[in-house]
């Protein structure tokens, strides 16, 4: 039982650290890159990633908090999988810039 508890705790904090990474990345990007990448604005993505990170820290991955924790993780993963690559492409001189 102890091993399972540690695995759940590791998943919980791995999600929270992923959210923190996404928030810091969103914070460090140029504001005009978001519009050039045809994505929502920088403040909106900072709110989404920051709010999701707070939710993942406050609520547990296991138990009743999962109903809030999982959508927060999905929001962070959308940023990392969809928005972040577009921002990197635009700022490196991709076809849209």
Can you tell me about this structure?
It is a single chain. By secondary structure, the chain is mainly α. It has one domain. The chain contains four helices and no strands. Helix 1 packs antiparallel against helix 3. The longest helix has 27 residues, at 2-28. This is Transmembrane protein. The chain crosses the membrane at residues 6-24, 44-62. Keywords: Membrane, Transmembrane, Transmembrane helix.
How would you summarize the topology of this molecule?
Elements: H1 2-28, H2 31-36, H3 42-58, H4 66-91
Pfam families: DUF2516 (PF10724)
Organism: Amycolatopsis azurea DSM 43854
Transmembrane segments: 6-24, 44-62
What are the defining features of this structure?
97 residues, mainly alpha, 78% helix, elongated, DUF2516, transmembrane
Distance between the termini: 53 Å
Say how many strands there are: 0
- Poorly predicted segments: none
Strand content: under 5%
What is this entry, summarized?
By secondary structure, this protein is mainly α. The protein has one domain (about 20-90).
